[in-house]
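Q: Got a minute? One more chain.
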Amino acid sequence: MKLRNSFFSLHALALAALLGSAAAAHAEMTFYSSQAAFQAAISAPVTDRFDDLFWAQGPGSLSREPGAGYGYVVSALKFDGSDYSSFYNAGSDTDVWLSTDQATDVISFDFNYTDKVYGVGGFFFGTDALGAFLPGQSIKLNALDADGVEQVVFIENAQPGTFYGFASTSQIRYFEISAVQPAGGPTWVAANDLVLGTVAAVPEPSSGALLLGGIGLLGLGARRRSTKG
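A: Always. Here it is, folded:
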């Protein structure tokens, strides 16, 4: 499998060259910090809870099929996209969060294997080296759709109980999360209850673009991870 660069600007340029030259209007992407509003913008939501992941340090890439025809590949990548890293389970035995082995790694979701994902969301926050929630941390969220529309959002003081998501009028191709490294020490990013969704309704020929949505994910661990960048 060819490794994808994790910086979405490259994808945006490539997709713009292929799709942006057409006369069609650009897609619209909306960011949500309310799970209720996100759920209202999508249909057929499916949640991937990741509670089946029982290892401590896992592989660098996972193929997931949470149900209802949804499928995707999630990878742990070096911060510059140059190579694969490895996953790490955080949280607890009963509530697993998907995290990374190294603090600077990026969790990258690839939805190119399905035509259903128009919305992705979940609970994203920082953890310490043992996989426990670390308050006061900032995370970065990136989403890119098939029309080359990209949104980058920075969340300050991310909490495990706060939902964040994106819905687009075009299929979402990639979604990535990473931790913003503080000056005082390393922070790992974690994802819980990834929600995926599709279009909210079938549009009429003259209707405007529709919002779509949802994804959630999880992981667990008790072993100290590497602090290498």
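A: The longest strand covers residues 188-198.
Q: Perfect, thanks.
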